[in-house]
């Protein structure tokens, strides 16, 4: 990450931007609880920038600021990007909990904000200047409920979620609603129980789940480390049911912390190098492997696509003015490395879901579930 740190330092210390440069703001959690997600997302943006550093015949300057994994700072950073740096558009942060306050500021100031991986519906809701290149939690929750019922033959489920995290609260709710609807049984979600972000002991919640004896356990943790700890403690208590999660599970920390406890777990995400999502996927994966000596996950792929979708809109608008960019984004039909990207009436991407599992200590591709 040394090169990233140097780039950020140079950008923040440089206040004398050239007159003809197009400034694009980037907000990510590069420190704090969400730092892994922010750093991986920044990799994707950097790769895209290296490929296309100019647009409309003008150089692009990335203004990268750390929101420190803090909701208040997430809003402050977006304010700085708009008021101090006068950016034309903003590439948003990892984590819906950070994306919601930042998107609110951008929309209020009528500056385009593109969220690469925020799945909570509130990120774009009633915000005409805010877009996202990923699917949303109502779809993701339904996908995992369908998978549990159709592939795992589950008739009952338990849900344990982080009450302090917007993403976790939302995804838990949508999974529960979909599971009840699909089973036709209002009592099919036998336990719906919360924990507080930062907790280390989940014994009370897991004991309640063990007593209810569900067929599957859904853990839409906002922080991947929480999911790994819950999995470990669940296995220690003798819970043997399949564990299910959402896209935040798609990080190496899940296996590093969870170990054998997450073996056989399933989760939904938006990208896998082995999924046939786009003609552009293979080339991106090869470049990423060469640069970082590992396979890319969903975060660098979506961040890469977010940058490319923005450049595509600026090119078609023939302008770097936020209102012109916004209008161009509305008619986007772009094939990215994570698949085809179009926006619905809420400016949410219509995307497919990728289901993955953990097998022999590695992430494995299972299947693709088509978007609406």
From TrEMBL:
Record key words, sorted: Signal
Domain Leucine-binding protein: 22-359
A Pfam family recorded for this sequence: Peripla_BP_6
Domain of life: Bacteria
InterPro entries in the record: BCAA_transport, Leu-bd, Peripla_BP_I
Similarity-based family: Belongs to the leucine-binding protein family.
Name of this chain's protein: Branched-chain amino acid ABC transporter substrate-binding protein
């Amino acid at each position: 990450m040394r090169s990233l740190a140097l780039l950020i330092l140079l950008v923040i210390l440089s206040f004398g931007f050239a007159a003809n440069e197009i400034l694009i703001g980037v907000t990510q959690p590069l420190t704090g609880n969400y730092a892994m997600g922010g750093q991986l997302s920044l990799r994707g943006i950097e790769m895209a920038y290296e490929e296309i550093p100019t647009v409309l015949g003008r150089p692009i300057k990335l203004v990268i600021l750390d929101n420190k994994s803090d909701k208040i700072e997430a809003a402050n950073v977006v304010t700085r990007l708009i008021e101090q740096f006068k950016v034309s558009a903003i590439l948003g942060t990892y984590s819906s909990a950070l994306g919601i306050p930042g998107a609110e500021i951008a929309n209020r100031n009528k500056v385009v904000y593109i969220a690469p991986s925020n799945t909570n519906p509130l990120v774009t809701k009633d915000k005409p200047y805010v877009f996202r290149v990923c699917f949303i939690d109502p779809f993701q929750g339904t996908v995992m409920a369908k998978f549990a019922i159709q592939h795992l033959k589950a008739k009952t489920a338990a849900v344990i979620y982080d009450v302090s995290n917007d993403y976790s609260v939302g995804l838990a709710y949508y999974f529960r609603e979909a599971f009840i609807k699909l089973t036709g049984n209002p009592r099919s979600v036998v336990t719906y129980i919360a924990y507080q972000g930062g907790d280390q002991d989940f014994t009370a919640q897991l004991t309640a789940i063990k007593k209810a004896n569900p067929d599957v356990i859904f853990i839409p943790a906002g922080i991947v480390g929480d999911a790994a700890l819950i999995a470990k403690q669940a296995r220690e208590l003798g819970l043997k049911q399949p564990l299910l999660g959402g896209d935040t599970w798609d990080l190496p920390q899940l296996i590093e912390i969870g170990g054998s406890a997450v073996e056989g777990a399933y989760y939904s995400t938006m990208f896998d190098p082995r999924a046939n999502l786009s003609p552009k996927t293979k080339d991106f994966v090869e470049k990423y492997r060469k640069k970082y000596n590992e396979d890319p996950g969903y975060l660098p792929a979506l961040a890469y696509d977010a940058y490319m979708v923005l450049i595509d809109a600026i090119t078609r608008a023939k302008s770097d003015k936020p209102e012109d960019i916004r209008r161009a984004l509305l008619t986007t039909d772009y094939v990215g490395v994570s698949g085809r990207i179009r926006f619905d009436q809420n400016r949410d991407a219509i995307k497919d879901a990728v289901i993955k599992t953990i097998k022999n200590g590695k992430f494995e591709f299972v299947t693709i579930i088509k978007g609406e």
